[in-house]
Write a structure and sequence with these properties.
The complex is a heterodimer. Chain A is α+β, with helices and mostly antiparallel strands. Chain A folds into three domains: about 40 residues, no CATH class; about 190 residues, Alpha-Beta Complex (Sulfite Oxidase, Chain A, domain 2), CATH 3.90.420; about 130 residues, Immunoglobulin-like. Chain A contains ten helices and 24 strands. In chain A, a hairpin with a 5-residue loop joins strand 23 and strand 24. By secondary structure, chain B is mostly helical. Chain B has a domain of about 120 residues: Cytochrome Bc1 Complex, Chain D, domain 2. Helices cover about 40% and strands about 5% of the residues of chain B. Chain B has seven helices and three strands; from the N terminus they run ααβαααααββ. In chain B, helix 3 crosses helix 7 and helix 6 crosses helix 7. The N terminus of chain B is likely disordered. Classes of the chains: A alpha+beta, B mainly alpha. At the A-B interface, strand 4, strand 5, strand 13, helix 8 and strand 15 of A face helix 2, helix 6 and strand 3 of B. Strand 15 of chain A pairs parallel with strand 3 of chain B, so a sheet runs across the interface.
């Protein structure tokens, strides 16, 4: 029995015990209840959502049918964007991309974080020591570079007309991350002249290693221990995660235990064999980092059905690795005309931003889409514009089996006359 | 007398200030690791051979190790099986990169031989990572490279020879030199340009 089921059963058991008390059968019911059920007060110590709320991550765990072509066991779970309110992703629903390994079970008292290499003073910290240092809390999204890609292992479900925002864009999530700026730790250690990169390493079974330019390490990277007001969850890197705001998910090293300051990228497995983008000329672009501006309407969206004509609020999420979202425009006529949506606080750098716009459905066919602009002035591209960047045509994007990394094209949802909403990416 | 005391104080202050600039600002938080602590965690090997330990191995020596510890997932000849991906490759796989079904394998895609050593050493065998000796890792790296005809069966792989191995797809990356990744913030193909 998993812990969740266990909690539910206890809840039911205790509910029965309470019902017994309420009926005045305490004398006979109490001994039995005391035997089988834990203290009723235990129930309220750690909250659970209503048992009627069913929103969950979907994906493939240890499913050989859906493994990556060149990977033993894919482990990818998409977040249900269409069910989320505001701009924070509940930690329990944050997307997961692992590469076939379960999260390690780490005792935070035993965990150590080492900074070494080209530094004047190598340093080793406990988690508690890191918590003594000046901290910051910042909203940031983390997104897999393959999120919303038409190709790759999730391609068919992403392109399906029945796709929901979870199917199309579920590999992004946004949290309030709390931790120590990596720049502070590196200054403590004293970065030596000539240092140009760092390698960040996790303590998972495959000791994931990622090379990151020192500029990012000294800019806004965080050694995070907190996520949405609680310790980072095991599947998100407990007890420490490197957060590299706005950069491809692979850089946000979970279970962080070592940073080595070096003078070149170390060409680890993921950064040389899995994450470079293979273009049609056969060349691979490697060390792509920053994710471009992207947005998706989460309501109304694919898989939903509008029950009747009338008022609907269009709501969605926009984000950019380049900075804060400055503007989101909405079109309900397939891109012929656009209107500004309202952006909702908090509007943070490199974070999901919630947008809304009023809309009256007149019962006719409509195509809803959103287009965002970040504070660098970069505008979310159309599918045709993304194809151009790849030196390909739209047909290539539709048919390729390769992951199209950083695919940030505008996402259209088609509303049919019967109120059904479907994916209209191609 | 008074002047010299002031001067001495001033010098002491300056000395103290200079020392402060060179020592950590947050005293008592974190400590210097021992050499042994660093050595036990420092497993990374770079493309020019930095971090590669002493030891050596050949494909011949690697064959029985591969058969015993790797073939169950990757197949007897590293051709790939249900659990483990294919590790061999050559021109046909490099040509596949121009198609809609690109195949990425160690032999036909990976740009550096040191990455093979580094990944075996840190992550393999699955479930028992960290149990291979440096000699075994060199021998397994040599075995995998020999299956793609990148090295010969008797070529000795060690900290000096491994970084010199030319991988078939080494020139398949843009920019060819990582040193030319100058502005990482513009790497994401935006505003009509792929820098």
């Amino acid at each position: 029995m998993n812990p969740r089921e266990s909690n539910r059963r206890n809840f039911l058991k205790n509910g029965a015990a309470l019902a017994g008390l309420a009926m005045g059968t305490a004398a006979s019911a109490l001994p039995a209840a005391a035997e089988s059920a834990p203290d009723i007060d235990e129930l309220h110590k750690y909250g659970e959502r209503s048992h009627l709320v069913k929103s969950v991550r979907i994906g493939s765990i240890n499913n050989p049918e859906r493994r990556l072509k060149d990977e033993p066991v894919a482990f990818g779970l998409k977040s249900p964007l269409q069910d989320q309110a505001g701009m924070i992703t509940p930690s329990s629903l944050h997307f997961i991309v692992s590469h076939g390994y379960e999260p390690p079970d780490i005792d935070p008292q035993e965990h150590r974080f080492l900074i070494h290499g080209m530094v004047d003073r190598p340093l080793i910290f406990t988690v508690d020591e890191l918590k003594r240092l000046p901290s910051v809390s910042r909203f940031h999204f983390i997104e897999c570079h393959g999120n919303s890609s038409p190709g790759g292992p999730g391609g068919p479900e992403r392109k399906s007309v029945a796709a929901t925002p979870q199917d199309t864009h579920g590999f992004t999530s946004c949290s309030l991350w709390t931790g120590v700026p990596l720049s502070l730790l590196l200054k403590e250690a004293g970065v030596q002249k000539g240092a140009t990169w760092i390698t960040a390493e996790g303590s998972d079974a495959s000791k994931h290693s990622k090379s990151i330019p020192i500029g990012k390490a000294l800019d806004d990277a965080l050694v995070a221990y907190g996520m949405n007001g609680e310790p980072i969850r095991p599947e998100q890197g407990f007890p420490l995660r490197l957060v590299t705001p706005g950069w491809q998910g692979i850089n946000n090293v979970k279970w962080l235990h070592r940073i080595q300051v070096v003078d070149e990228p170390y060409m680890a497995m993921m950064e040389t064999s899995r994450y470079p983008s293979v273009k049609l000329d056969g060349k691979s672009r490697w060390f792509e980092f920053e994710l471009g501006p992207k947005s998706v309407i989460t309501r109304p969206s694919g898989g939903q059905r509008l029950p009747a004509q009338g008022y609907y609020e269009i709501s969605g999420l926009a984000w950019s690795g380049g900075g804060a979202i400055r503007r989101v425009e909405i079109s309900a006529d397939g891109g012929k005309t656009w209107k500004d949506a309202q952006l909702h606080d908090p509007i943070a750098k490199k974070a999901h931003t919630r947008f809304t716009a009023p809309w009256n459905w007149n019962g006719e066919e409509a195509v809803l889409q959103s287009r965002c602009t970040d504070d660098q002035g970069t505008v979310q591209p159309t599918v045709a514009e993304v194809a151009k960047l790849w030196g390909a045509d739209v047909d290539y994007l539709r048919k390729t089996s390769a992951i199209v990394g950083d695919f940030n094209a505008i996402q259209p949802w088609k509303v049919n006359r019967d109120g059904s909403v479907q994916n209209a990416i191609f | 007398m008074r002047f010299s005391r002031l001067l001495a104080g001033g010098i002491a202050f300056l000395a103290c200030h200079a020392a402060l600039a060179q020592t950590p600002s947050y005293t008592g938080v974190g400590r210097a690791p021992t050499k042994e602590e660093i050595q036990s965690m420092d497993i990374s090997a770079g493309p020019d051979g930095k971090g590669l330990p002493a030891g050596q191995g050949t494909a011949k020596e690697g064959a029985p190790i591969f058969a015993a510890k790797c073939a169950v997932c990757h197949g007897a000849n590293a051709e790939g099986a249900k659990i483990g991906p294919r590790l061999t490759g050559g021109q046909a796989e490099i040509d596949s990169l121009k198609t809609m079904q690109p195949v990425r394998t160690v032999g036909g895609y990976w740009p550096y031989a040191t990455s093979v050593w580094d990944y075996i050493n840190r992550a393999m065998p699955r479930g028992n990572a960290g149990t291979l000796t440096p000699n075994e890792v060199y021998a397994l790296t040599a075995f995998i490279l020999s299956k793609s005809n990148i090295v010969k069966e008797d070529d000795v792989m060690d900290a000096k020879t491994l970084p010199k191995v030319q991988m078939p797809n080494r020139n398949g990356f843009v920019p060819p030199r990582y040193q030319d990744v100058v502005d990482e913030h513009k790497r994401g193909c935006k505003q009509g340009v792929c820098p």
